[in-house]
Specification:
The longest helix is centred in the middle third of the chain and has 20 residues. Helix 1 packs antiparallel against helix 2 and helix 2 runs antiparallel to helix 3. This protein is 45% helix and 22% strand. It is α+β, with helices and mostly antiparallel strands. The chain starts with a helix and ends with a helix. It has two domains: 64 residues, no CATH class; 66 residues, Nucleic acid-binding proteins (OB fold (Dihydrolipoamide Acetyltransferase, E2P)).
């Protein structure tokens, strides 16, 4: 078997797949690693060493790539953090808030605090479909 040709074809397949199945450049790094191994395969005939080199290069390239890809935040918490309560939120209980034009289930981030209805709140975090909020007045103090 012609190993350099095998690695070159594999590299082309991975790079081509990235065009149709975007994976955040993971497939591209696998393809790039395969191209490097295709060059090394001209000198190193051992297929086991080639596989080990491909795995190692792929891991290194993926690790290096993660440094340049920005961390994504969920869109629902990216733009604004202001909301308004629709119902009162009792300590440790859930209520409803209006956030970006939609009604969301919400809990107070402080388990001992009560938030009255129709109060401005700030979204602190989100867990699933539940927003954790704090009253604006509590954050200003």
């Amino acid at each position: 078997m012609n190993y350099p040709l095998f690695w070159a074809i594999l590299g082309a397949i991975f790079c081509f797949m990235e065009l149709f199945l975007p994976t955040g450049f993971v497939e591209s790094t696998l393809g790039l690693s395969a191209f490097v191994v295709a060059l090394v395969a001209l000198v190193v005939p051992s297929f086991n060493l080639q596989i080990g080199l491909w795995v190692a290069l792929s891991l290194v390239f993926i690790f290096l790539l993660r440094r340049f890809v920005p961390k994504r935040t969920p869109y629902s918490l990216q733009e604004s953090t202001e909301a308004r309560t629709l119902t009162a939120i009792a300590p440790g209980q859930t209520g409803r808030v209006i956030y970006e034009g939609n009604s969301w289930q919400a809990r107070c981030d402080d388990e001992t605090m009560t938030i009255a209805a129709d109060q401005p709140v700030v979204v602190v975090r989100r867990k699933g479909n539940t927003l954790f909020v704090m009253p604006e007045s509590a954050l200003r103090a």
